[in-house]
C-alpha cells in the first residue's frame, strides 16, 4: 500500500459566481521515500492540493468529493483535532515565504520547542533543546543562533529555520511549496542538497510544488503536471522530460532556458488558463493547444497509459509518430498565439 | 550584429551608502563619536557597453548588480568613479547633456505591479516620458511603442489601467514606456522573474526583438544564469561590489575560471534528469560589505585559497594569459605582467580598501 493515496479529489472555493473548481478529480499515489514534483502555472491548483492534504485550506475552500488516504486513514473523514495531531509529526509543510510562516514575537528555538512539546508531551526541555541543536546543524545553521528572532535572520537563514522546524518531528511526508523560489541559486542549491540528505536519513517522502522544471528534474522521482485543476500528465521524471505525451508538458518544458545549451528557441504558450468557476467542457487545455481539434473541445480526454506515463490527451497515441516533433517546434506555438487572439496576450 | 563601438564606459564606479542616517546617528557623528559606516554596494566596477550588445550582470543578492544598473541610468549618483557616454564624462556634463543622457538611458524594473503608476492609464504611462522631454507627435509614438510591445490593437489599451492588465501585459507596457523615447540603451533588472512560467518566454522574445530591430544595447541584471546565457553576448559576474570575471557568455558559462563563478554556475539546476551535476557546496555566506576584508573579498569561501597573497592583495580584474575572459584572481598569470606578490607586506596601500579611491592597485 502506498503511503499516500489521493482518489478523485475535488477541492472547491466558494466565490460570488459559484464554486471555483480549483482541484477537480485528481488521483495519484505516493510511495514511502518517494519524491513527487507538482508543476504547472499559477492557479493550476498545485498549492490548493497541498493545502487540502495538510488540512489548512482557507475558509472559502472545501473538499467537495474524494478521499485522501494517508497510511490507511482517510484524512477527509478526520476531525480537526485528529488532523492537528498529524501536522508536523506526520505531515509537515515548508511554505514559500518563511517570513510569513514564522512568528515574529518568538525566538526560533521557542517555536520549534513548542511544536515538539505539543506533539510529544513527555519531552523534557533538555531533550527538546537537543533536537533544536541537531536540526540546526542539519540545515547548516549555527545552533547558537536558535535564540534569535526571525527578523535577525537573512532570507536564506529563515528558509533553513523553517525547514529545521518542518523536520524536527521527523515527519514521514513533507510538503514543500516553492521551498527555494525566493532564494539565490547558491542558497537554493545548498538547501535542496540538505533536504535530500535529511530525507534519506529519516526516510520521508516529499511533494515538491514548484514552477521551476529544473528543480523538479534534479530532485524528484516522479512528476505530476497540473493544468486548470486537473492532471495533464503524470509519471517518472525521465519519461516526463524525455518522452512526454501531453502537449502542455512539452510546452512547459520548452519555456525554460537551459544553462547547458548555448542557443535555444524558447517556446511561449499563448493565452491564459480557463475560468475555474465555469470550466470549458472537453479538454481544459484545448483553447491554448496548437493541436486541438473539435473532439478536444467537446470531449474530455481519458487517461492514456504508455511508458509508465498517464497522459490525459486524446491524441496521446499519435504523439509518438507525428505530433511530438510538431509540438516541440516553437513555430507551432507562435502560430496558435496569432490565431487565438491576434497576439494580444502572451 | 554587435558593432565594436563603445556606447558607454563605466570607469571605476563606486556607490557607497551611509548605514545609519537617523537623527541619533547624525547627532553622535556631530559629537565626533566615531566615523559613519558605509555599505560598499558597488566598489570599483569598470566595464564597457558596446553598441547593439547585450551584457549580463550576475551574482547573488547584495552583490551590487542592481545598484550598478541604477547608477548606469543615473538613478544613483556615484560616490566615486564616472560614466562616459558619447565622449562626455557624466560628472562634468551640463544639465542639457544630462537631460539628453536620460532620454537615451531607460530602465525596466523587476516588478510590473510596482513600477507602473496605478492611477495612470496605459496611454499616459507611455506618453509621460515624451511630455517630460517635450517630444511631439505623441499619439503616433505611443501607438508605435505599444504595437512593438505586441499590445494589439494599441488603441484598445489606451484607456486601461494597470490593474486591468495581467502581469505579462504590464511588463509589456513598461517595455513600451522604456522604448518610446528611442533610447540608446536599456537596463533591464530581472525583467521576467515576477512573471508566470508561460508568460516569460513571450516577454523574453520581445526583449530579443528589441535588441535586434532597434539596435539597442541592453544590460540585463539577473541572478538566473540560464536566462542570462539565453539573452546575453557578454557576462560580468559580481561579488561584493566588484566584478570577479567578465567575458563572452559562452566562455564564462562553459569555462569559468574564478572560483566564485565556478561555484555560481555549478549551483544552477539543469532541466534534464539525465544530466548529473557535481554539487560542490560553497561554504559560508557573503562577507561583510561594511567592514570590507583585506585582499580578495572571496577568500573566506574560496576552495582555491593560496595564502597570504589572497589575504593582502586585492586581485585586479585583468586579462590573463591563456584565457579569453578577464579574471580577478591571483591563481592566474597576468597577461600584462602584473605581479601581485610585489604588493605584499611592506606596501600597506596594497591591502587597504578604505575610502581612498586609488586604494585598489591596477583595478582599471
Automatic annotation (TrEMBL), chain A:
<dbReference type="InterPro" id="IPR003593">
    <property type="entry name" value="AAA+_ATPase"/>
</dbReference>
<keyword id="KW-0813">Transport</keyword>
<dbReference type="InterPro" id="IPR017871">
    <property type="entry name" value="ABC_transporter-like_CS"/>
</dbReference>
<dbReference type="GO" id="GO:0005524">
    <property type="term" value="F:ATP binding"/>
</dbReference>
<keyword id="KW-0997">Cell inner membrane</keyword>
<keyword id="KW-1278">Translocase</keyword>
<dbReference type="Pfam" id="PF00005">
    <property type="entry name" value="ABC_tran"/>
</dbReference>
<dbReference type="InterPro" id="IPR050388">
    <property type="entry name" value="ABC_Ni/Peptide_Import"/>
</dbReference>
<dbReference type="InterPro" id="IPR027417">
    <property type="entry name" value="P-loop_NTPase"/>
</dbReference>
<feature type="domain" description="ABC transporter">
    <location>
        <begin position="4"/>
        <end position="253"/>
    </location>
</feature>
<dbReference type="GO" id="GO:0015833">
    <property type="term" value="P:peptide transport"/>
</dbReference>
<dbReference type="InterPro" id="IPR003439">
    <property type="entry name" value="ABC_transporter-like_ATP-bd"/>
</dbReference>
<keyword id="KW-0547">Nucleotide-binding</keyword>
<keyword id="KW-1003">Cell membrane</keyword>
<dbReference type="Pfam" id="PF08352">
    <property type="entry name" value="oligo_HPY"/>
</dbReference>
<dbReference type="GO" id="GO:0016887">
    <property type="term" value="F:ATP hydrolysis activity"/>
</dbReference>
<keyword id="KW-0472">Membrane</keyword>
<dbReference type="InterPro" id="IPR013563">
    <property type="entry name" value="Oligopep_ABC_C"/>
</dbReference>
<keyword id="KW-0067">ATP-binding</keyword>
<dbReference type="GO" id="GO:0005886">
    <property type="term" value="C:plasma membrane"/>
</dbReference>
<feature type="region of interest" description="Disordered">
    <location>
        <begin position="326"/>
        <end position="346"/>
    </location>
</feature>
<protein>
    <submittedName>
        <fullName>Peptide/nickel transport system ATP-binding protein</fullName>
    </submittedName>
</protein>
TrEMBL record, chain B:
<feature type="compositionally biased region" description="Acidic residues">
    <location>
        <begin position="353"/>
        <end position="364"/>
    </location>
</feature>
<feature type="domain" description="ABC transporter">
    <location>
        <begin position="8"/>
        <end position="265"/>
    </location>
</feature>
<dbReference type="InterPro" id="IPR017871">
    <property type="entry name" value="ABC_transporter-like_CS"/>
</dbReference>
<protein>
    <submittedName>
        <fullName>Peptide/nickel transport system ATP-binding protein</fullName>
    </submittedName>
</protein>
<dbReference type="GO" id="GO:0016887">
    <property type="term" value="F:ATP hydrolysis activity"/>
</dbReference>
<dbReference type="InterPro" id="IPR027417">
    <property type="entry name" value="P-loop_NTPase"/>
</dbReference>
<dbReference type="GO" id="GO:0015833">
    <property type="term" value="P:peptide transport"/>
</dbReference>
<keyword id="KW-0813">Transport</keyword>
<comment type="similarity">
    <text>Belongs to the ABC transporter superfamily.</text>
</comment>
<dbReference type="InterPro" id="IPR050319">
    <property type="entry name" value="ABC_transp_ATP-bind"/>
</dbReference>
<dbReference type="Pfam" id="PF08352">
    <property type="entry name" value="oligo_HPY"/>
</dbReference>
<feature type="region of interest" description="Disordered">
    <location>
        <begin position="338"/>
        <end position="364"/>
    </location>
</feature>
<dbReference type="InterPro" id="IPR003593">
    <property type="entry name" value="AAA+_ATPase"/>
</dbReference>
<dbReference type="GO" id="GO:0005524">
    <property type="term" value="F:ATP binding"/>
</dbReference>
<dbReference type="InterPro" id="IPR003439">
    <property type="entry name" value="ABC_transporter-like_ATP-bd"/>
</dbReference>
<dbReference type="Pfam" id="PF00005">
    <property type="entry name" value="ABC_tran"/>
</dbReference>
<dbReference type="GO" id="GO:0055085">
    <property type="term" value="P:transmembrane transport"/>
</dbReference>
<keyword id="KW-0547">Nucleotide-binding</keyword>
<dbReference type="InterPro" id="IPR013563">
    <property type="entry name" value="Oligopep_ABC_C"/>
</dbReference>
<keyword id="KW-0067">ATP-binding</keyword>
Amino acid at each position: 500500500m502506498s503511503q499516500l493515496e489521493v482518489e478523485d479529489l475535488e477541492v472547491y472555493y466558494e466565490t460570488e459566481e459559484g464554486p471555483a473548481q480549483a482541484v477537480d478529480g485528481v488521483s495519484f499515489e505516493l510511495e514511502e521515500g518517494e519524491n513527487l514534483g507538482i508543476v504547472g502555472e499559477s492557479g493550476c491548483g498545485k498549492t490548493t492540493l497541498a493545502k487540502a492534504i495538510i488540512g489548512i485550506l482557507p475558509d472559502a475552500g472545501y473538499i467537495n468529493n474524494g478521499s485522501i488516504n494517508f497510511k490507511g486513514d482517510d484524512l477527509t473523514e478526520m476531525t480537526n483535532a485528529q488532523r492537528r495531531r498529524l501536522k508536523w509529526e506526520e505531515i509537515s509543510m515548508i511554505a514559500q515565504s518563511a517570513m510569513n510562516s514564522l512568528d515574529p514575537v518568538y525566538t526560533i528555538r521557542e517555536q520549534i520547542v513548542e511544536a515538539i512539546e505539543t506533539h510529544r508531551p513527555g519531552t523534557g526541555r533538555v531533550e527538546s533543546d537537543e533536537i533544536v541543536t541537531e536540526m540546526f546543524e542539519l540545515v547548516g545553521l549555527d545552533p547558537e543562533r536558535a535564540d534569535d528572532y526571525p527578523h535577525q535572520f537573512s532570507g536564506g537563514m529563515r528558509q533553513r529555520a523553517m525547514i529545521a522546524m518542518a523536520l524536527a518531528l521527523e515527519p514521514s511526508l513533507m510538503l514543500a511549496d516553492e521551498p527555494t523560489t525566493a532564494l539565490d541559486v547558491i542558497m537554493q542549491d545548498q538547501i535542496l542538497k540538505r533536504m535530500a540528505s535529511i530525507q534519506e536519513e529519516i526516510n520521508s517522502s516529499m511533494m515538491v510544488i514548484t514552477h521551476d522544471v529544473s528543480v523538479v528534474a534534479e530532485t524528484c522521482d516522479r512528476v505530476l503536471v497540473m493544468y486548470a485543476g486537473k492532471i495533464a500528465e503524470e509519471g517518472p521524471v525521465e519519461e516526463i522530460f524525455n518522452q512526454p505525451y501531453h502537449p502542455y508538458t512539452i510546452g512547459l518544458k520548452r519555456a525554460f532556458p537551459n544553462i547547458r545549451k548555448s542557443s535555444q528557441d524558447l517556446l511561449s504558450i499563448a493565452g491564459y488558463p480557463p475560468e475555474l468557476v465555469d470550466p470549458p467542457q472537453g479538454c481544459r487545455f484545448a483553447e491554448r493547444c496548437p493541436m486541438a481539434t473539435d473532439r478536444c473541445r467537446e470531449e474530455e480526454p481519458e487517461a492514456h497509459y504508455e511508458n509508465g506515463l498517464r497522459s490525459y490527451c486524446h491524441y496521446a497515441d499519435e504523439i509518438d509518430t507525428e505530433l511530438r516533433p510538431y509540438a516541440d517546434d516553437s513555430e507551432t506555438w507562435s502560430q496558435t498565439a496569432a490565431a487565438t487572439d491576434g497576439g494580444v496576450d502572451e | 550584429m554587435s558593432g565594436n563601438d563603445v556606447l558607454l564606459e563605466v570607469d571605476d564606479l563606486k556607490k557607497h551608502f551611509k548605514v545609519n542616517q537617523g537623527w541619533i546617528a547624525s547627532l553622535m557623528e556631530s559629537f565626533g563619536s566615531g566615523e559613519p559606516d558605509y555599505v560598499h554596494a558597488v566598489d570599483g566596477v569598470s566595464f564597457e557597453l558596446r553598441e547593439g550588445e547585450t551584457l549580463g550582470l550576475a551574482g547573488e543578492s547584495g552583490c551590487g548588480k542592481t545598484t550598478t544598473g541604477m547608477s548606469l541610468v543615473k538613478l544613483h549618483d556615484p560616490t566615486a568613479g564616472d560614466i562616459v557616454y558619447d565622449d562626455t564624462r557624466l560628472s562634468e556634463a551640463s544639465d542639457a547633456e544630462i537631460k539628453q543622457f536620460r532620454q537615451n538611458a531607460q530602465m525596466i524594473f523587476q516588478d510590473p505591479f510596482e513600477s507602473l503608476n496605478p492611477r495612470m492609464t496605459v496611454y499616459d504611462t507611455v506618453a509621460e516620458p515624451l511630455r517630460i522631454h517635450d517630444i511631439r507627435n505623441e499619439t503616433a509614438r505611443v501607438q508605435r511603442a505599444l504595437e512593438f510591445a505586441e499590445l494589439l490593437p494599441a488603441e484598445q489599451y489606451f484607456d486601461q489601467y494597470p490593474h486591468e492588465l495581467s502581469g505579462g501585459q504590464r511588463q509589456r507596457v513598461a517595455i513600451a514606456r522604456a522604448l518610446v523615447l528611442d533610447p540608446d540603451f536599456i537596463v533591464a533588472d530581472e525583467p521576467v522573474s515576477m512573471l508566470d512560467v508561460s508568460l516569460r518566454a513571450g516577454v523574453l522574445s520581445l526583449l530579443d526583438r528589441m535588441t535586434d530591430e532597434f539596435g539597442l544595447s541592453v544590460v540585463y541584471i539577473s541572478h538566473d544564469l540560464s536566462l542570462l546565457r539565453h539573452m546575453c553576448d557578454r557576462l560580468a559576474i559580481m561579488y561584493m561590489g566588484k566584478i570577479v570575471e567578465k567575458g563572452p557568455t559562452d566562455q564564462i558559462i562553459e569555462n569559468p575560471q574564478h572560483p566564485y563563478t565556478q561555484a555560481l554556475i555549478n549551483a544552477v539546476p539543469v532541466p534534464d534528469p539525465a544530466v548529473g551535476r557535481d554539487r560542490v557546496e560553497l561554504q559560508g555566506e557573503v562577507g561583510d560589505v561594511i567592514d570590507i576584508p583585506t585582499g580578495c573579498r572571496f577568500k573566506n569561501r574560496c576552495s582555491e585559497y593560496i595564502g597570504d597573497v589572497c589575504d593582502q592583495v586585492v586581485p585586479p580584474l585583468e586579462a590573463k594569459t591563456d584565457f579569453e575572459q578577464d579574471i580577478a584572481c591571483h591563481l592566474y598569470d597576468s597577461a600584462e605582467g602584473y605581479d601581485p606578490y610585489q604588493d605584499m607586506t611592506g606596501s600597506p596601500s596594497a591591502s587597504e580598501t578604505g575610502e581612498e579611491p586609488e586604494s585598489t592597485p591596477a583595478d582599471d
